[in-house]
Amino acid sequence: MKLDPETCWTAVLARDASKDGAFVYGVTTTGIYCKPSCASRKPMRKNVSFYATPADAEHAGLRACRRCKPEREHASDTIEARIRKACEII
What is the reported pTM? Predict the structure, then answer.
């Protein structure tokens, strides 16, 4: 998947939660990667790289943000997992 850096950067600036799961962004000066919707301080554009998956960011030497936890499953996947678990309990 080819990421468009300008589209990704616009999503980061807008904290666009609809783009969560589509990509993560890494900040080279902190060594951290986040979801586009993360409430962290906005980095300088020159220090930001975009990655298709959290695994790609980790392969580049970055660690997951402790605030937004981008390495966790997609929100929709989490909801589906909760529904499955509830059905198993019932």
Answer: 0.79
